[in-house]
Amino acid sequence: MTSVRKSFQSEGFKRYIDSLKFALYTCRRPLDGFWDLVHEKRGSLAAAHTIVILFILNQIVYLTQSNFIWINIPLESFSSVFVLINILGSMLLFSLANWCLTTLFDGKGRISDIYMGYAYALVPQLIIRFALTWLSHIVTWDEIMILVVLWRVSDLWFYILILCAMKQIHDYSFGKAVLTTIISLAAMGIMVFIFLMFFAVVSDGVAYFYSLGQEALFRMRRG
Amino acid sequence: MKKFICYVLVAILFAGMLPATAFAAMGRSYTYSYNEWGAPIPSPDVYFVSAYILGQHLYFNGENIGAFLSPQDIHVHGNLLYLADSGNHRIIIIEFFEDTTFEVIDIITSVNHNGAQTTFRNPHGIFVSPWYANYGQIWIADTENHRILHMDENWNVLNEILHPGIYGISQLAPDSDFFPTKLAVDFSGRLFVQARAVNRGFMEFDRYGGFAGYMGAPPVEITPWDQIWRFIATQEQRERRLLNVPVEYNNLSIDDEGFIFGTISQVTDELQPVVRLNMMGDDVLIRNGWAYPVGDLWYGQGGDRSGPSMFVAVTALPNGNYVVFDRNRGRLFAYDTQGNLLFVWGGPGPREGFFTMPAALDNMGFTLFALDAGIGANNAALTRFDLTDYGALINKALEMYHRGLYEESYHLWHDVLRINGNFGMAYIGIARALLRQGYYRDAMELFRYQNDNINFGRAFGFYRRIWMEDHFWIFVVVVATLAIVPPTVKKIIKVRREIRES
Predict the structure, then answer these.
(1) Number of structural domains in chain B
(2) Does B456 contact A69 at a Cβ distance shorter than 8 Å?
(3) Kind of pairing, strands B102-108 and B90-96?
(4) pLDDT at residue B392 in the model
(5) Is A68 within 8 Å of B460 when comparing Cβ atoms?
(6) ipTM of this predicted complex?
(7) Residues B429 and B463 in one domain
(8) d(CA B309, CA B165)
(9) Domain total for chain A?
(10) What residues of chain A lie within 8 A of the CB of B41, using their CB?
């Protein structure tokens, strides 16, 4: 018991809590916040993981628990795993694509920095979607515009944050940040394409050898 | 439609996919409907085949009249049915009696034109006026004679309408041929004609047969890509490309209120395959349904058929519902006045209740007649459909419902649900009655079953107001606490500090 208490009072845990609280600061002061996040070491990967996990859980709650006048998904075709893969996959893919690109264009950020920046940029969406989930239960169809506005604001906020994050993490000018972000989106597409093609080729190859073996077995049996 | 697009996007996003078995409903049951997610579900039969009439089974004056040859149009007048047996250049008149029996009472092959007899050549359309001003007068689109014949009730030609190009204001070149195919006449005697290769809408003639202009041209669709191409193309390329012209209507019918229903056999985002035109030529069809009235929402590529439904005929029932005939899959789609899809039945094939080449559709009260032009010899048939008890019940309930008599329709909808628990409109009908009577909670639940956001919001608004009135003390308590507690606490702290400091 004492060890547990000690670990909560430890220096590392305090730093973790501070870095979590810092997520709220990055939402309000993105340029300053994202600079300090990486260069002053005020963010932490643990906090980033926490935000991502919370975001995924919140997204599942948001999609399933919102009132049907706001989000209406046939639950028999809903998959939490798909939500997880969607969010995590796009994050990791973006981090990888952006890192590959920015190392060529003298960006300063490491791949973990990019991941952290992305995670911290998700915070406003996390909060607003959580609010939307419960707000959707107390509005009528005529008042749904309020939710639409909130939703658009959360999206816009995310785009602004991610651009600020890219700018500060890589120490770019704003135009360059926009450009590299757009190009890394294209790079994500190319990576997915290559990934799919690779799997298609491998599965075709496996199928070829499998049918070859089958053929051999049939012939042996007829013998 | 926006809602529909949203659902489609969500369906694509959630690639978990709707269960494939849902779509099999279309093939397994003769009648089906679409549920609140737009998935097809089987339904009890609403119409049944009460007569399947082939020309080779009909007799007139003791003689077999022979098979229909590519018949193109039917028109119902009272209890008479006029059938344009186009390939045999004749009009057959069949009388239907109360007990669903029928008899050929006349066959017209030639008519009296100024004392001489004149014959038809491949007549594609017939109309008999139900209106007071010209009751019983007959119009025939004598297609390959390039004329329209206007006759009195005894088949004496009153007027012969020829190529309108001679009037100088027609789009038809004066030396081109005039092929009238389908026609309808309104209560003032104006004649609306669909002619082949005319794409500016319906041709309109005044009551004396003079050409009066075009009505209700479908809007032309120009995509951004077309515009870019037009900008960069050279003069020769522009000329060689097909002209961007509106598509043609392919059929029309006039309803009891004098509005014209038209069909177009092409579905795009811009164009509607069914239109209801007022006398100005504006489309006034109500489209409040879950999806636009376009026929099938989902279509596979089985059995040599692919793509969306191709409507070739439409008829309006006495209660304002309308039925459209799909040539692509031989199906009949019934919509109500608000544009909700009620039920779909029929299918492709040379069988009773199925169609190989749908051509025309008309109604005698709620009884429907569907004409199948047939592919090859001996396949052309006239099918008579009558309402089942279930169908009659739905019509009764719908009539109450659309007049706003929700309480009266309440029990009828319950009877409908006893036969078919999948009939979505019944839930909405019941919920509306409950809403009217103040059972907001129950109404909300039923609206939720049917994904009806707007009515759910309405019921919820009432529910929320009552909840607020009942629980107003909560707000009072909260506000009072906020107003009283913090200042008191502050004051206590202040007093204590003063005591300590003094």
Answers:
(1) 2
(2) yes
(3) antiparallel
(4) 93
(5) no
(6) 0.76
(7) yes
(8) 34
(9) 1
(10) none
